[in-house]
Structure formats: structure tokens, C-alpha cells
Fold:
Amino acid sequence: MTQTIRTLILLAICAAIAVPSFAQTSFPDGTNISLLQWSHFVPTYDEWFENYIREWGAANNVAVSVDHVNFAELPASLAAEIDAGLGHTIIELPSSPASLVQGLHDLSDINNQASALFGEQRPHCKAVTYLPAVDAYYGFSAGYALNHGNYDIELWTQAGFPQGPQSYEELLAGGRAIYDATGIPVGIGISPEIDSEIAIREVIWSFGGSVQDEESNPVFNSPETVAAVKYLAQLQNQAMTAEVFGWTGASNNQALVAGDASFILNPDSAYRSLQKVDRSAAANIGFTPALLGPAGAFGGTHAFISVIPAYVKGSQLQAAKKFLLDLAASYSDITYHSELFNLPCFPDTVGELDTWLDDDPFGSLPADKFAVLKTAIDRAVNFGFPGYSNPAIAQVYAEHIVPKAIAQVALGEATAEEAVALAGDRIQEIFAHWRSLGLVGSGG
Structure:
């Protein structure tokens, strides 16, 4: 099916279910919206998006502009614009800005409209935009990227795991064997950046630990977390290098593309980059769903969270809300042009997804390489799992408490019990602060 035909079908469906179509609203002359978002890891997406906003703006009598920055700069940019009381109309972030909720518009209206129009939203998407303590949505998420295993098939076959590691026990055993034989390490960051934060939380969740419980009580200091931290320290000491302590968000991608990592936890952007420069090397990359631990398997997600600062008013605010709803209705195009990196929070908006996963439209070898993501999607959870991504969770991330604790143990600076207890004390303080402001629930 061509992109033109698919777009026409989607627009017909949207009209049938009363989604505001491109031609149904014309805002007052002079209405403009400006967007701030990250430079996509799949460059073809940004090219498509530029064309999309031109067409949408012309159809709605709105001037639309977009600025791109490194995703690591977005939280600070949003905070600065809220403090200044002026800036962009819509800011899209890959991590929850819940700690800035008091400077953001309540977007409960468009979240409710989206659910009515597009069907049920995936729970991990709601959990990074809804704040139970105030019963409001501080953001809107129509899509996310999913962490899954990316492994070197040849290396793991030689180590006795032709399907790649399926558990953290196998990751340690196989990763250690590969490292001893070839010097090529496992690539899971233990660094103060988002990819590391998500990957190490997957390990902690799989051992039964977490930062908070389902009722927003801090529970980091637990035997389960201690066991996970001991595992990560052992993995670093026996199958990784010290470079992981200083990794950036691009480091795991770069390591896989360069052949300098046998396994990483990441969405498919590293694979897509390799596919464009060396198709035979890309064919040697396999995917696994989230790995199994003693307590199960949990795949971390990078939710794409759009927020509208409270300084946005009038027709600009209404245009921004319509833009977000129309963009959600176009998620089939978004998934396609991001080369399956962006997955839909509202599954019904991308009816072709299973077909694309079974037969990659971008020429993967084998064609069904992405089919494993069906299992991976079933294991997807949000950053604050098993609770919501509240302001306390956002601050724990901002202070990078979790990777710092793990690094201390891996470097021999503290025992797992000591590092987890110290981190747990700080996390308790953070939760108490936000609870006193009424922005974290009273707990169970």
C-alpha cells in the first residue's frame, strides 16, 4: 500500500469518527504554534514531519514552526521557558516532566477525546502523562519507543546462544564468554543518562525491585534491589568495560554499529543506522524481547510526551490541542516514516503494525526480524513502574540516584547493601517533599 493511499484511508476513517480533519477548522489570522522536540534518531522522520506541519498549518490557517535539539537538553529547556513565562507552544520530551506539572496546562480534555476517538491507550503511556494525586493529565503521549535486546548473532551463536540471551542469567554467562574470547563487551550503560537509566531499571524490575510501589511508596531499599545491583556490578566487572560509566545516550548505538558491543538494550535506531551503511552487518543483528529475571521480564519505554506550558493562551492553545489530536490520528504515517521506531500508544491508529513487524517494509534480513517485538510490546512498562511517573520519580531520575549507586558497587566503593540503603534514604526524602506538596499520593 502506498503512503498516499494509506493517508487517504486514514483521513476517511478520521472523518467517519469525527476526528477534526485537516480542513475542518480554520483558526484566526495570526495564529501560530511553535514546537520544540528532539532530533529524531531516524532522520527520515524529521524530513516527513517538516512536510506534515506545512500541510497541517496551511489547512488550519496556522503558522507552524519546529526547533530540534538534543533530547538530553529538553527538560532544562522546558524548565527555563516555564520560568520565563514564554517560549515554545508544544514541547515533546522522551522522559516525564511531572516535576514541572504546576507550570503546564491540564490536558485531560484531549486525552479523553483521544481515548474516545482512537480506543484504549496503552497503560505505560497513560502512566507518564497522568498524575493521580491531582487527577489530571500534564501531558499527551501518542507514541513511544520500546527497549529490546539487540545482539550480534555470530558472537552469540559461537557462545551457544543462537537466539541471543533470553534471560539475565544467559546474558551474564554468554556475555562473559564472548568478552573472554574476543574482548567484545556487553553494552549496558551505568551512567547518568536516559538509556542507562531505563536499561538498569529493567534489570531491577526483573529481580523484583523498584523505586516505588504501585501506591507511590518509595521501596528502593529492598533485598530484591540489592540482588539486582549485585548482578549489575558482576555483569560490569566480568563482561563490560569501564566505558559504560561515562556513556551518553548515543553510546550504545555507536558501540553496536561499530561492532564494539555484543548486546545492547535499545529501540531499533542503532540497527537502522547500521542497515543504511552495511546491510550484511545489519543482517547479523538479532532482536530479543525484554530479558527474564527472577521476577519476570519488563521492557522499558521511551514515551514521547507532549506538553503545553501554562503561558500558552487563546487560539494558540486551541490550535496546539488540535495539532496533537490530528498528529495522533496520523500515527500510521509516523510509525512508517520513523521506520518502526515510533510505536502507537493507541494501537488502533496503526492497523498495519503487525503486518510491518512480520514483513519489514525497509528490507530487513530476514524479513520478519521485527516480529519478536510483538512479544516485547507485551512486556512494556513505564519509567515509574509499577506506579505512575510522578514528580518524585522525575526527580530521582534528574539526580541520577540509581546509576550512581550501581557504579559505586561496580567500582568497589561500597557494598550493594550500603549503596542501596544510602540511595533509598535520598529517595525517601524526595518522595516526602513531593507528598508534602500534594503532588504524590498519600501512599498505601
